[in-house]
Design goal:
DNA polymerase, domain 1, two-stranded parallel ribbon, 46% helix
Length: 112
């Protein structure tokens, strides 16, 4: 593969710089959402109550499929309500990483 000629190289570098500056400007303008939602983020309207939600609602959470949702419900029914995200790690298939990702998206209801 031959290297592009000088004018073509200048255009390629200019296009790359323009693209980089565009992304930087968009980020500074606040148009790029944060990587993870913050628990007090006003964009999070409704959190799912892990102690009351049926399995189908739990499936809407990232990283939770049918099998894991069913395990969460079964664990809750046999061991009682969850108090915090760390309690979710007792369910087979829920590790610390997933529990941390769920933290801003779930609620544990009023103390029972």
């Amino acid at each position: 593969m031959a290297w592009p000629r000088a004018p073509q190289r200048v255009l390629i570098v200019a296009a790359a710089l323009l693209l980089a500056f565009s992304f930087a400007a968009a980020r500074r303008a606040g148009r790029t959402p944060p990587a993870e939602p913050v628990p007090d983020d006003p964009r999070i309207d409704v959190r799912i109550d892990v102690n009351a939600a049926p399995a189908v609602d739990l499936e809407a959470l990232p990283g939770i499929g049918k099998v894991l949702a069913a395990r969460i419900v079964a664990y809750r029914e046999s061991h009682g309500p969850f108090r915090c995200c760390e309690d979710l790690t007792q369910v087979p298939g829920v590790g610390e990483k997933l529990a941390g990702e769920l933290r801003p998206l779930v609620d544990f209801g009023a103390p029972r």
